[in-house]
Amino acid sequence: MASATDESLPNIQFGIMGCAEIAKKITRAIALAPNASIIAVASRDAEKARRFIASNALPEGTRAHGSYEALIEDEGVEAVYIPLPTKLHVLWAVAAAAKGKHVLLEKPTAVNASDLDKILAACEHNRVQFMDGTMWMHHPRTARMKEVLSDPGLIGPIQLIHSSCSFSATPEFLENNIRIRPDLDSLGALGDLGWYCIRAILWAVDYQLPSSATALPAVHSNNAGVLLACAASLHWDDGKVATFHCSFLSNTSMDISVHGASGSLQLTDFGIPYREDSASFELTTGAHFRELHIGWSKTPEEVLVATYLPQEALMVQEFARLVRLIRSSGGHPDPKWPGISRKTQLVMDAVKRSIDLGFKSVTM
């Protein structure tokens, strides 16, 4: 008898809700994933959906819907990918879940944890899988780094984590992009880029929430009050400290460094690897300064990890695998992914509240 993970089983049928730029990347990922297919695309303009289908070479017969309502009413669609502006997430993710559609939601998942809780409650009530679109979580490098961090002989107890995520936006972006509009993506750089940093920090500590979050007085906002750059520190009762910086105003960076009592792990492309077929990180264990401090006793070791699919296709594959399990055996959605999303959102909320309070510490 075929199992729920047997590749001979029918693919999970996806609908794409919106034709944002990131939707092109996920469309390619769905095409690459061995257990997923796209059967419908929706826009508020059916002609735009048809152009998206044609420009992304989707199969003949892919349906073009002229509304999001039509997509979630499409009985052939089992799962939806939602790359809409953040302020629309709660409306359409809840509506999709209510129609029994599994939800792959672009990050940031919501404007605040209260909205995310509505989404997660709808998914739980309707027994549909939820996952956010943080792609790097699914790269095999991420699993290899977790093995390193879990080995007490390599890193030791974690003391300090730092992450940065930034890019230097064009004047046109800073004037017109949805990510700087308070009516669409009011969290700005904190939501778009800070989400990556916060997730990386939580991942490093096995999702143990910090005891407090304190924004640093290094905030840049546009005239509408949307964050263009910010930074924060996170603190744990056992003494761990983490800092992060996210910005639309700095040169491209996607760094994370984890420092323990006996070693360090570092990489500079954690969100989007430099290459699709492999990715690496640096590991330093037991290093010290040489005599007279004229060098180091050890140099970092490069650990290279190959992958058979790009990380976004691996994300789709894992999501579709979970949906298959529910479809084939009547199982329950995996609670891991909504739980991780909620913790990320809670920390992001605390940082935003600290900014609003004039950089006061916020207890988690």
TrEMBL record:
Protein name as catalogued: Gfo/Idh/MocA-like oxidoreductase N-terminal domain-containing protein
Gene Ontology MF: a single term: nucleotide binding
Family: Belongs to the Gfo/Idh/MocA family.
SUPFAM superfamilies linked: Glyceraldehyde-3-phosphate dehydrogenase-like, C-terminal domain (SSF55347), NAD(P)-binding Rossmann-fold domains (SSF51735)
Domain GFO/IDH/MocA-like oxidoreductase: 145-265
Residue span, Gfo/Idh/MocA-like oxidoreductase N-terminal domain: 12-131
